[in-house]
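Why run this: before we spend reagent on co-expression, it is cheaper to look at a predicted model of the complex and decide which construct boundaries make sense. The entries below are exactly what would go into the expression plan.
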Amino acid sequence: MKDDIAAQELCELLARRQLPTGGWSALSCSSQASVESSALAYIVLPSDFASARQRATQFLLAMQSANGSWPSFAGDDKDGSWTTSLVLIALQDNIETIVHRFSGFRWLLQSAGKESHWLWKWKFLTTDRHVRFDPNKFGWPWIPQTNSWVVPTAFSILALNMLPGGCGFPNREHRLELGIQMLLDRACPGGGWNAGNGVVYGRRMTPHPDDTAVALLALLGRTKDPIVSASVDQLDRIAPDLNAPWSLAWSILGLTAHGRPVKSLVERLSCWPNLDQVEDTSTIAICCLALDYPRALARFGLVV
Amino acid sequence: MTLNRREILLGAAALTAGMSVSAPFFIPRYREVRRPSRSRVAILNAEQYSQNIEAVLMQGLRLFKIDLRRKSVVLKPNLVDYIPGNAINTHPLLVAAASECFRKLGAKQVVVAEGPGHQRDTELVISESGYTPMLREGGIRFVDLNRDELIKVRLRADYSGLKQLWLPRTVVFADFFVSMPKIKTHHWSGVTLSMKNMFGVVPGTRYGWPKNILHWHGIQECILDICATVPIHFVIADGIVTMEGNGPLDGSPRPLGVVVLSTDPVAIDATCARLMGLAPDRVAHLKEAAKFLGNSSLDLIDQAAEDLRFPTVPFKVMPEFEFLRQTASLDS
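The model came back. Tokens follow.
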């Protein structure tokens, strides 16, 4: 009950922070609309915020570039960014956006980490071996002309899982499997993920709770994989001591998706001091989702 | 010897082709020279992080003529990630001391700003690194540069080929920008000091975590382009406990017991390199920056406060950067 009240208050806060353009800025002090924050706010707001959702839909559609992608923020260049997958997740149930989403999926399936090119693949297999990874297993980059990383790959997998098979995208299954293999390849030894560097110069790197949780959402179909189960255990171990709402909220989502009890974590989040004064819109949105965790996973297209 | 018309034409064509190929190597890649005629660097002894650090810092700041009246000051510490036991980040006590000193020197406003390059959860890095109480008790505003409002800026040098970058408003409009690096070795750039610290101004929401585009366009090249574009007005380097070996995250702590100050980022980075037992003229970005951004030569740097001491044993570096280590004490 307390969680419901906290979630409702955060939704109202989000609605109040909506910009006149229909989007949301990354920080409350700014007027520059961020696509990540806007997509997350859209995912969070329930249907009783119909007017805010309608204005947000118009904003997101207006932001789409001619090539089908979405930029990072209003005014950004038009070459595309990782937020494309997040917008596709946000607009999943919105029938009026179907044409826009199809061009977004088309762009997403053409986008790939730079290591997928034979020349760079050869470089990473031969001369540049400081970061341990298999360039044959590639996913999605944050922006074009860069490597694949964990978070954009995980969001792309979640988005593509929402695209029904046989929709005219023959390489969907192949890209999905490659993306999953890439995530498994980039895990930290002992479980969990950071941005995507599991081992550098032969040394084990430390996982990050938020990256781990996002990857776990994308790997929900692979629960029996030892890397996945080790990662769930690792996140379960560290989550109770997290000192920041963003990581705690993502951990709640990642753990509940894999069947771990999260009640005590949710209670902790609902009592977080001054949550309504957090400047970062995306943090408010993710906290709102985590407080409403029984229903939140469906918004990422996940059925537990 | 006489030349016929055909030979003259062929010679002219060859000369033109030769010039067009070699010209890029001779035309400067920077748009302006900001190097002062001489630079001052102050090395302050500070054995440990303590409340006394503010007095030490104020004493050091008085060695420089800096006018902060009515200016907004941005302190940019090095906050990359948090790994217990590793000396990764600029210590919060030093940042708090800097904030207090600049306020006392008349600054209109002091903010701490950073965009961590590995961790998306900036608040987690701040909290785990001990910054939260410092910011709260000091009433200091923190700006997450990964999520700040962005402005497209044309780069004022062209080493990387990037031409332009989206940069945070807080950085672009700062009256007085202070780079506060942690003195560390770095497995990809040799050292990470005040100039490499500027990677933190590149916004993650636009370029991702890590800021991989900078790696693809060349780390040393991007350092030069960013530092040519965003002027560093002052540097306070945290050398009390530094990092050697596999920096910037996974090296070993190495106590050096100093805080180093300067108005010249190249001079201070060269001095820090010397304090680490590394040759500044072998660090690619420092060597190039000494042509237009500041002084690296010992002859052009006035040492204030303590004398420059070269370590008996140079800092450990990754095998690729072994050439940076120098046991002989001096270069020019």
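The radius of gyration of chain B is 21 Å. The longest helix of chain B spans residues 5-26. Bring this page to Monday's planning discussion.
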